Amino acid sequence: MLLTVLGASGTYPRPGGACNGYLLQDDAVEVVLDLGNGCMSNLVRWADFTQLDGVIITHLHIDHFGDLYPLYYALRFHPQKPWGLPLYQPGGCLELLGRILSEDAKGYLPQVFRERDINEEEDLSIGKMTFRFYPITHMIDGYSVRVIGEGWSLAYSSDTMPSQNLVKAAEGVDLFICESTLPKEMEREASLGHMTSHQAAEIAKEARVKCLLLTHIWPTFDPQKIAREAAEVFDGHIEVAKEGMQINLEG
Ligand SMILES: [Zn+2]
Ligand SMILES: [Zn+2]
Fold first, then answer.
1. Do β-strands 153-156 and 143-148 pair in parallel, antiparallel, or remain unpaired?
2. Residue 12 sits in a domain of what CATH number?
3. Tens digits of per-residue pLDDT, 185-219?
4. What spacing in Å lies between the alpha carbon of 79 and ligand 1's midpoint?
5. Going by fewer Cβ within 10 Å, which terminus of the chain is more open, N or C?
6. Ligand number with the minimum distance to the CA of 193
7. How far is the CA of 139 from the centre of ligand 2 (A)?
8. Which ligand gives the minimal distance to the CA of 179?
9. Measured in angstroms, how far is the CA atom of residue 14 from the centroid of ligand 2?
10. What is the pTM of this model?
11. How many domains does the chain fold into?
């Protein structure tokens, strides 16, 4: 399975960057996990958007779903009408998207995207990948995601404060993509719904993950400093997510 980082910034992008998004390519199956603002230009570099097998949106914050708008227009006006792309989301995504569209554009939304709700009770299978969802502790509802493939595993925190749900999602995975929005001294600010470098690393340690990929770092902060802080707590492999970064997980 090849993972490509489409966007790694928290809340707003770094210069030339994008907000959160990941492309999972497993054999011929392609799934997008979050599609924040700025991700579409990276998606078209790495994949044919008409061939996607699904898009999963972890929660309805713009830095995780904003580029559903350009994806919608790209599909809607494509000459072959490759509509019906499965859109897995925590509930109400199309209704929210439609609020700023014209009546005409809104009408096509349910044709272009086939909306499906995700929840913690049901696993989702796409190709040989199984997705399991764990409620986040954040300003709004949503899910961390655990993905099991043939001989590999990963977890993605989405946006959340530290929780036992997140430890469960990440338990023993090969790759843990974890938000570390803030530096270690900003635990008070993180209590609004995010994590510091130390908190992300503590979850990685408790869940005994193999590799920690730090993401969603606010552009205000130096990612290398955040990584150094995480290494004070977690002694496994640590990387910082960056647009265009690719990681191969082999079975
Ligand atoms: Zn976010
Ligand atoms: Zn959020």
1. antiparallel
2. 3.60.15.10
3. 999 999 999 999 999 999 999 999 999 999 999 99
4. 33
5. C
6. 2
7. 7
8. 1
9. 17
10. 0.98
11. 1
